Amino acid sequence: MKNKILLLLTFILLIIGCAVNVNAADSIVMHIDDPVMQVDGQDVNIDNNGTTPVIVNGRTMLPVRAIAETLGLNVEWDQNERAVTITKLPENNKKEDMEKSADKKILVAYYSAQNHTKGVAEVIANELKADTFVITPKEPYTESDLDWTDDNSRVNAEHNNPDTRHIELVTNSPENFDDYDVIFVGYPIWWGSASWVLDDFIKNNDFTGKTVIPFCTSQASGLGESGKELEKAAGSGNWLEGKRFSENFDEKEVRQWVNSLDID
Ligand SMILES: Cc1cc2nc3c(=O)[nH]c(=O)nc-3n(C[C@H](O)[C@H](O)[C@H](O)COP(=O)(O)O)c2cc1C
Known about the structure:
By secondary structure, the protein is α/β, with parallel strands linked by helices.
């Protein structure tokens, strides 16, 4: 039975092989009644709903969204038409363009108090072969400093009194900041906004001529106005729409987002 599925998948791969994105997976293995697939040898959930491949009336049914998206294709479901449209990635995501963007010098700068944003930053940096810069407060936050449920914690004191929110950094810039063409700026959401630990990094660097892409992690809040607020505080740079990830982010979602960006 496994052989049959592999054969079918190989057939699908052959049909759409020409559309495969430069960062898309090379192989997918699925098993009947198993919600976990192997993507390039790694276990990955097919989706968050526990969907599995099944055999119905002797026909093998495979989850097309998981397959198409893993291969770097875009899948849309139209409820009115009850139709699925699968498309190649937009022009700006084609291999030649990705190769062109390899010439760009990319920095992933981030602050992460509890390592969630760090995880996303590392996926971005790996995917784009980018450098990283960790925005580090001179006085790091301890677990109890971060306890927003405690009225007397450091974060609550700083949140309640903006005058105490100036957080000095170990250093405001990485070496050769001027050489970077694209800067990803990552942060945790604190009370619906970007953590104020970023402030000195944003205010003390000149983003003129650079593409700047905010990203954040949070428990539940969206990106909100955080990207726009940072853009305003920076006063320079070509800021793109950013993206929020859950603190339990999905690596595949991060990679797909990175590869959908127009950073040429
Ligand atoms: C002081 C503080 C305030 C927070 N405020 C929010 C919030 O407004 N909305 C939300 O969804 N999560 C909030 N969170 C949760 C964090 O955004 C989330 O855990 C994030 O992934 C942490 O990233 P980090 O590990 O990189 O620091 C808050 C966490 C802290 C410590």
